[in-house]
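Quick one:
INPUT:
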């Protein structure tokens, strides 16, 4: 596969995953702002921006509605939802012949939904409806990708982008919430703190799944364990890293190339760290450092993937 094609498929997938993550976190933040007995709207906004990686130009202005509108519709800001969807569509346009007609149609519908004046008007009257529509449209694109595209190298690059972006985003989110999750489990908490814990799980679409495993008894250590180490939940970091590992192995297998040792070691190290560390060991040590380490390793895997599959030299291609 041409590196240009792999690059566009990878980034198309990452941008859509990033847009979905932003939609979910904004939805939760706006819901929590309605509770005037909890933290201030400014605190919620600053935490939301920190969870998105502190992109420049999205500072608190004192108006939650205006701030949310900028985060959703500012097409000139690369971290906005519109900016992510525009970038995903541009990447798809560059490799139009490599994706299915159904994928292109779904992405175009999402693009036109974002740029419709009707959507902006609806957003001002009912934010939740618009955010739900965006989530539905992104889920439809993912479903269409899985059912209309041959599961060859291109599809694996889409999965690689999706799961690497997801692992990095959840690690960033947990790092922001880590001071609250570090509280002792037996400590009694208020009703508002319970809402905040539900909000954290909802940011990862994890509330119902968590309740199936632990019931509705929310404790910080269980929440952290579920979002970090669960091997069966798609928005847990361990599951996402498993997805990255499988995608890289499949890319290497379908390409008929010997696995580059450095990349294999990088993903293997992160996979082993999540597979053989208990939540007790994480909480008794440097939890924030553990989460930061995950983010660093995700960035390292991205760099190695780029070195071996996107920006490789002829010499390095011949060497593997």
């Amino acid at each position: 596969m041409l590196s240009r094609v792999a690059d566009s498929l990878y980034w198309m997938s990452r941008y859509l995953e990033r847009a979905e993550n932003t939609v979910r976190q904004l939805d939760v933040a706006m819901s929590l702002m309605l509770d005037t007995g909890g933290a201030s709207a400014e605190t919620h906004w600053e935490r939301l921006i920190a969870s998105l990686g502190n992109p420049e130009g999205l500072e608190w202005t004192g108006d939650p509605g205006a701030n949310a509108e900028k985060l959703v519709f500012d097409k000139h800001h690369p971290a906005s939802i519109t900016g992510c969807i525009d970038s995903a569509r541009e990447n798809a346009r560059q490799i139009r012949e490599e994706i299915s007609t159904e994928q292109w149609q779904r992405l175009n519908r999402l693009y036109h939904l974002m740029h419709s004046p009707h959507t902006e008007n609806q957003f001002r009257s009912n934010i939740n409806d618009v955010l739900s529509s965006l989530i539905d449209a992104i889920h439809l694109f993912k479903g269409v990708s899985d059912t209309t595209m041959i599961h060859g190298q291109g599809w694996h690059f889409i999965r690689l982008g999706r799961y690497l972006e997801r692992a990095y985003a959840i690690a960033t989110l947990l790092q922001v919430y880590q001071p609250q999750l570090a509280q002792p489990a037996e400590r009694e908490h208020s009703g508002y703190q319970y809402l905040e814990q539900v909000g954290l799980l909802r940011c990862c679409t994890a509330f119902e799944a968590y309740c199936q495993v632990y019931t509705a008894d929310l404790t910080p250590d269980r929440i952290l364990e579920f979002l970090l180490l669960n091997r069966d939940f798609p928005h847990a970091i361990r599951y996402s890293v498993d997805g990255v590992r499988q995608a890289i192995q499949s890319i290497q297998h379908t390409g008929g190339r010997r696995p580059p040792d450095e990349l294999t070691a990088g993903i293997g190290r992160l996979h082993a760290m999540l597979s053989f560390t208990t939540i007790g060991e994480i909480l008794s040590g440097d939890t924030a450092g553990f989460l930061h380490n995950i983010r660093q390793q995700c960035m390292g895997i991205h760099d190695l993937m780029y070195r071996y599959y996107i920006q490789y030299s002829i010499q390095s291609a011949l060497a593997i």
